[in-house]
């Protein structure tokens, strides 16, 4: 049984090893010393993963699924310790849809990866031709992840990869390596040796993984800019890629919605993980007739949400994970204010206190061309844009070059679905936002990336299609 201290010790850099101090974004206190691995470490990890892969592939789906189910049990055994470390490193509170929720999702997605069916597909069988489509293991998969949901997104990448008979080398964000190292330490208590290795390094290690000749596929979640760099880096080895990139999700409230009834769900759609979520609601479009009512209801929900240090059970909102992200949010809100937008709540951080705390901020009377609308804020600041006609709302929602998620809010499901069909996004939720589900494929449109995760489609993306014709 792991304690918090034994878990932390298991991921701490060895004496003499290159390391990086990780600071708690809520307090500025040191959390731990993460190892800083090198490109030589990466080469060794890829070689070990390649050596372990044939036996893992040969073990078959049933054995691999059983191992993943045991790995999910291991996560549950150490859930509280993992959640505490995640909270201290990432900043997200234990409580609310945050650290405990994230660790719970890791177990749920591992089980889904273990139990999702994937049968060979008979494409043609007409008496003359028989063609069957199979999905074979790729080999070694590289998993490169961000700092916002570091454990959960790593599981999204590695669960299906392992299930499909691949071995995996993980490159966590340099902002949140301890969480990922700890998660993988726990998973490796149950998984056969050599399947899963973490190389905790910086961009140089990410780049080396994306160019590595021994790696057949990169699962990448992060910014659109890095996604484009990975496309370039992977070109010479023609790697397969799944790219889950940045988003700037629009939500459209239809004129028949009830502002009071939807305010809580709108709030969490935007402010889950203190706004540091890829598929969070990042721009809200509200008709003239409901504008003031939606602003008032959202303001009263936002004002009641406690923000503070993650280990305090009272809090449901936390700090920004890093100072650079704090500066982005502050710059965008200041620019909106300077342009004449109305700050309904927030927008005025208390700079006398430690930590990257930026208050939950709602911004009204803002133009659709304002940078707080057009750039991904990735933090606790939501612009609320007024519209007159639904055509205008759809045009504004589709105006950007990203399209991860979107949402439509109305009690009239047919009307909402008709609007949804016209939105350029990989997922459109109705009366909710960001509700990912391990059974349902998830991926981006436009520059939010390509490839699908989750469900049977997600498994297929971790295999090489092979047709046996005859
Ligand atoms: P980032 O792109 O800065 O970093 C992500 C990872 O890529 C890190 O591990 C980093 O070290 C690595 N990296 C950096 N440069 C690299 C290179 N040239 N080659 C290979 N690897 C490299 O992203 P971030 O700031 O950690 O995450 C925030 C972004 O991620 C936001 O835009 C957010 O919308 C997006 N995101 C998307 C999803 C999704 O599912 N679509 C989920 C979470 C986050």
TrEMBL record:
Boundaries of every Aldehyde dehydrogenase domain copy: 20-461
A Pfam family the protein falls into: Aldedh
Gene3D superfamilies in alphabetical order? Aldehyde Dehydrogenase, Chain A, domain 1 (3.40.605.10), Aldehyde Dehydrogenase, Chain A, domain 2 (3.40.309.10)
Q: What domain of life does the UniProt record list for this protein's source?
A: Bacteria
Keywords attached to this Swiss-Prot or TrEMBL record, sorted alphabetically, are: Oxidoreductase
Q: Which residues form the active site?
A: 244
Keyword Oxidoreductase included in the entry's annotation: yes
PROSITE patterns on file: ALDEHYDE_DEHYDR_CYS, ALDEHYDE_DEHYDR_GLU
Q: Which InterPro entries match?
A: Ald_DH/histidinol_DH, Ald_DH_C, Ald_DH_CS_CYS, Ald_DH_CS_GLU, Ald_DH_N, Aldehyde_DH_dom, LUC3-like
A GO molecular function held by the record: oxidoreductase activity, acting on the aldehyde or oxo group of donors, NAD or NADP as acceptor
- Family as reported in the entry's similarity comment: Belongs to the aldehyde dehydrogenase family.
Official protein name in the record: Aldehyde dehydrogenase family protein
Which organism is the protein's source? Arthrobacter terricola
